[in-house]
Automatic annotation (TrEMBL), chain B:
Protein name (database record): V-type ATP synthase beta chain
Domain ATP synthase A/B type C-terminal: 354-454
A GO biological process held by the record: proton motive force-driven plasma membrane ATP synthesis
UniProt similarity note: Belongs to the ATPase alpha/beta chains family.
Length: 581, 468
């Protein structure tokens, strides 16, 4: 292998000379320890390398080995249920081999080379296939069938396909290409992380990603294949929102990237996912999850790579025709890694010291999401939704990372410090947040949930907006100046906030609410509002209406089990109590 | 023998630039001998083929270009450790300060440590009773957590930290524990307060102290917390002890970091702090935790003073993004004479959910906590409203909430410096206050707990009190 020589070390940045012929974004091994790095700038024969491990003890004169390959991930059976660091090294294997602390220069294959997987072919010799076509599958977990696809440039005719148990590196299928060349397929493929995986066609999203979180599904829905961002100051519950989505959203595969965040949060995921059951299938959540963990104390350059590693894995499962959701927590830490490396390279800084290319890199990243027709002859549809947390300094939304993100994402869930202080969770501000998918999802909701679902959610939204205005007036001239109808609006809006939007992630029943139950809850609250309005018009006392016992029943609806009867019962009680008034 | 260089070419602030070097490594430990023979220490911040940038811990006062001798020691900074380290006092560079002997090393540990593999972490879930209601009841601390105190100048954070160190215990267990204390840039009086308090309670025998006081070299502060954490890791993960680490004051640490960054002419991030402040702080804070299969743990309480009480200042802001919650002190409560002046609403403990509940504290703890938060927040809103419109403009219900907020501050938050409340007492106190409010207002509490603890007899008593 070709070698260069180190001439400068400054933290995670190493400069090596004698590297003529090296390519941008090629991987290198740095120094006697063989640390993993990536070339990020070339200047004559000098290569600027970001190193994915701590460079303590590395000095000028030491060799740099050029691998002449870009930073890539291995895609094949064994990914699900794994926990990887930012450059796809399995942390559980590293722990078994090297102990509790991550040491340096470790080389471990991402996929277990010894494990055998049962491969079932669905094509036979003589079949013509295109790149992206499925030749067979491996039942990777009871939940997920891992579909083995023809890799790029693999168009041709199958001349041999096997069945049985194989290691990932064994050949299971041979394809004769037009050119006469033979392409051998094993169970995994390798893909450079910074290169988007191709799609046949992009589609407009039309189906919601159901999350079981009432404020998200009812007021600010995200589409399958859409993008969302969750910015908020510390302590406002970004991570809890991300965890809730990872737990309950109805995507088939979850890729969770813990990018520069807390180690204990990763431990929490690792401990709770094997125990939690997917509400749609009843299987442990870990069977559909991949975790990429590059915590804040792990090397900063690997943090930069981690979101691409996660994205490439997510795209790979999307290509199989699955609906995939990627959570990146937090993209601010990724941007800070960019800034740190940029600073060490003495680049001209833009806003707040972030490099000038921050916005284009972010846009590039989020554009890898989408609902698509996957490559191949089969017209498979896959979806990749991306939810990025952003941690702006001081919760200030004018932060460059927030602003650059808002330019590309379609859903904005604004977390609010004030709500968090009142322990109103999820602390998503209903007046600031928005979803640009509400229109395109209308049809789905009308067909699959209820005819009047969208109207109800719009009415709820309107009441909340009205509440903000009325509160302003009440604050200036006192509650007494409001008419009873206006005060009823305040009461109903409060009920929407406290009984519907407020949701306790740690309560066994409340943590997940089906669309049907969300609909019935909201319908009951608004039904009360309509009946109360009628009663006011009929001359009933305001104080009698607001002190009706049934309001207490409404507020406890969230704790009721998912049973149609019990839920409808509350609405009947509303009618009964107004009759008795 | 190490090569000696006489090739210092440049001295800028805390940095020394050495030319014509060979075989120098990044982050290597350096010894500099000045013209009078005094030794100083430093580390290599950047190295290229013929030049090394060295940060000098003791500062560069008195160093010259032509006579300073520089030796590169071929290793990074290390801390010698053994069981004997317990009960000792060191300076900010790890040299004994108590007239005791040098530590005979059983091991020499790199003070930068290595990151804990996230897969090896055990989730912290053992409740620590600090005896302080506003912490135990509202923002419970668990073993292996890092929970900073955000304070301001003049607020009693040393007293609170000392009270926690004095009273903290895990219910129903007697285990080996130790306190590791690192002082960065605080005054002699403040440091002495801690030492005296540790001495009076006998904690000094189980403590290790690393002190860098206000008049001591600022750059040394970069190493001080790392020495303390290396020591804590040794005690926790090799000697199976439960270690409480107190770091004061992280603001001075960050300022030292800024000084070096400025001397290197780096592109500054917010308010002149380097762009890598987050990563740098994280490499320390993240050393707290528990490890699967190990008995010991590291619980960390970093203390920082917020410049101008501003929570959005980079130091508290970045700290809050790394640590698992924060305890914020309030100048307003302090002025009202309430000790401890813990501002309950913006304070937070992220790890509380697995540390409380039946078998750990009490089944209703989580609900009580949420309800108290909600009620206090509403009470404070009512108080603001009353300020604008006068108390007469409040609805009856708001007036009840207002009263609740007052009582919450004077009865629940306020307690004595030597008063240790059990968690039972704290929760009961919470119920006592909640009984001031009508039952149906308590929406955050599960009906079964409301039934069990909101006893009608007590409620009637509460209402009578209201009428009076």
């Amino acid at each position: 292998m070709r070698q260069g020589k180190i001439i400068r070390v400054a933290g995670p940045l190493v400069v090596a000379a004698e590297c003529l012929g090296a390519k941008m974004y090629d991987m290198v091994r740095v120094g006697h320890l063989g640390l993993i790095g990536e070339i990020i700038e070339l200047n004559n024969d000098q290569a600027y390398i970001q190193v994915y491990e701590d460079t303590t003890g590395v000095g000028p004169g030491e060799p740099v080995v050029l691998t002449e390959k870009p930073l890539s991930v291995e895609l094949g059976p064994g990914i699900l249920g794994s926990i990887y660091d930012g450059i796809q090294r399995p942390l559980d294997v590293i722990r078994a081999q090297h102990g509790e602390f991550v040491s340096r220069g470790i080389e471990v294959p991402a996929l277990d080379r010894e494990r055998r997987w049962p491969f079932e072919p669905i094509k036979k010799a003589g079949d013509r296939v295109l790149a992206g076509d499925i030749v067979g599958y491996v039942q990777e977990t009871p939940l997920i069938q891992h579909r083995i696809m023809v890799p790029e440039n693999g168009d041709g005719e199958i001349i041999e396909i096997k069945e049985g148990e194989f290691k990932v590196s064994e050949v299971v299928c041979r394809i004769k290409k037009e050119s006469g060349e033979i392409k051998e397929l094993n169970l995994f493929q390798v893909w450079p992380v910074r290169k988007q995986r191709p799609v046949k066609e992009r589609l407009m999203p039309f189906e919601p990603l159901i999350t079981g979180q009432r404020i998200l599904d009812t007021l600010f829905p995200l589409a399958k294949g859409g993008t969302a961002c969750v910015p908020g100051p510390f302590g406002s519950g970004k991570t809890v929102v991300q965890h809730q989505l990872a737990k309950w959203s109805d995507a088939q595969i979850i890729v969770y990237v813990a990018c520069g965040e807390r180690g204990n949060e990763v431990a929490d995921l690792l401990l709770s996912f094997p125990e939690l059951k997917d509400p749609n299938t009843g299987r442990p959540l870990l069977e559909r999850t991949v975790i990429i963990a590059n915590t804040s104390n792990m090397p900063v350059a690997a943090r930069e790579a981690s979101i691409y590693t996660g994205m490439t894995i997510a795209e790979y499962f999307r290509d199989m025709g699955y609906s995939v959701a990627l959570m990146a927590d937090s993209s601010s830490r990724w941007a800070e890694a960019l800034r740190e490396i940029g600073g060490r390279m003495e680049e001209m800084p833009g806003d707040e010291g972030y490099p000038a290319y921050l916005a284009s890199r972010l846009a590039e990243f989020y554009e890898r999401a989408g609902k698509v027709i996957c490559p191949g002859s089969e017209e498979r549809i896959g979806a990749l939704s991306v939810i990025g947390a952003v941690s702006p300094p001081g919760g200030d939304l004018s932060d460059p990372v927030v602003q650059a993100t808002l330019k590309v994402v379609k859903v904005f869930w604004a977390l609010d410090d004030r709500l968090a202080n009142m322990r109103h969770f999820p602390a998503i501000n209903w007046l600031q947040s928005y979803s640009l998918y509400r229109d395109s999802l209308k049809k789905y909701f009308a067909e699959k949930v209820a005819e009047d679902f969208v109207e109800l959610s719009q009415e709820a939204m309107k009441l909340l907006e009205l509440e903000a205005e009325l509160q302003e007036i009440a604050r200036l001239i006192g509650l007494e100046s409001l008419s009873f109808k206006e005060r009823l609006v305040l009461e109903t809006a409060r009920s929407i906030r406290e009984d519907f939007l407020h949701q306790n992630a740690f309560h066994p029943q409340d943590t997940y609410t089906s669309m049907r139950k969300q609909y019935l809850m909201l319908r009951t609250i608004l039904h009360f509002h309509h009946r109360a309005n009628e009663a006011l018009e009929a001359g009933k006392e305001f104080s009698d209406i607001v002190s009706l016992e049934v309001r207490d029943r409404i507020s406890k609806m969230k704790y009721l089990p998912e049973e149609e009867e019990a839920l409808l019962q509350v609405e009947k009680e509303v009618d009964a109590s107004f009759k008795a008034l | 023998m190490h090569k000696e260089y006489l090739t210092v070419s440049n001295i800028v602030g805390p940095l020394v630039i050495v030319e014509k070097i060979a075989d120098v490594k990044y982050n290597e430990l350096v010894e500099i001998e000045d013209s009078r023979g005094h030794l100083r220490r430093g580390t290599v911040l950047e190295v290229s083929t013929d030049q090394a940038v060295v940060q000098v811990f003791e500062g560069t006062v008195g160093l010259d270009i032509d006579k300073s001798r520089v030796r590169f020691l071929g290793r990074s900074q290390q801390l010698p450790v053994s069981e004997e380290i317990i009960g000792r006092v060191f300076d900010g560079s790890g040299r004994p300060r108590d007239n005791g002997p040098q530590i005979i090393a059983r091991k020499r540990l790199d003070i930068n440590g290595s990151p804990i593999n996230p897969d090896a972490r055990d989730y912290p879930s053992e409740f620590i009773q600090t005896g302080i209601s506003s912490i135990d009841g509202m923002n419970p601390l668990v073993r292996g957590q890092k929970l900073p105190i955000f304070s301001g100048s003049g607020l009693p954070h040393p007293r609170i930290a000392a009270q926690i160190a004095r009273q903290a215990r895990v219910l129903g267990k007697e285990e080996k524990f130790a306190v590791v204390f690192a002082a960065m840039g605080i005054t002699f009086e403040e440091a002495n307060f801690f030492i005296e308090d540790f001495r009076n309670t006998g904690a000094l025998e189980r403590a290790v102290l690393f002190l860098n006081l206000a008049n001591e070299p600022a750059i040394e502060r970069i190493a001080t917390p790392r020495l303390a954490l290396t020591c804590a890791e040794y005690l926790a993960f090799e000697l199976d002890m439960h270690v409480l680490v107190i770091l004061v004051d992280m603001t001075f640490y960050a300022e030292a970091l800024r000084e070096i960054s400025a001397a290197r002419k780096e592109i500054p991030g917010r308010r002149g702090y380097p762009g890598y402040l987050y990563t740098d702080l994280a490499t320390m804070y993240e050393r707290a935790g528990r490890i699967k299969g190990k008995k010991g743990s590291i619980t960390m309480i970093p203390i920082l003073t917020m410049p101008e009480d501003d929570k959005t200042h980079p130091i508290p802001d970045l700290t809050g993004y790394i640590t698992e919650g924060q305890v914020i002190l309030s100048r307003e409560l302090h002025r009202k004479g309430i000790y401890p002046p813990i501002d309950v609403l913006p304070s937070l403990s992220r790890l509380k959910d697995k540390g409380i509940g039946a078998g750990k504290t009490r089944e209703d703890h989580a609900d009580v906590l949420n309800q108290l938060f909600a009620c206090y927040a509403r009470g404070k809103e009512a108080r603001e409203l009353a300020l604008i419109l006068g108390e007469a403009a409040l609805s009856d219900l708001d007036r009840l909430y207002l009263k609740f907020a007052d009582l919450f501050e004077t009865e629940f938050v306020r307690q004595g410096e030597f008063e240790a409340r059990t968690i039972e007492e704290t929760i009961e106190l919470g119920w006592k206050l909640m009984r001031q409010l009508p039952k149906k207002e308590l929406k955050r509490i599960r009906p079964e707990y409301l039934e069990k603890y909101y006893s009608p007899a007590a409620a009637a008593g509460g209402e009578k009190a209201n009428e009076a």
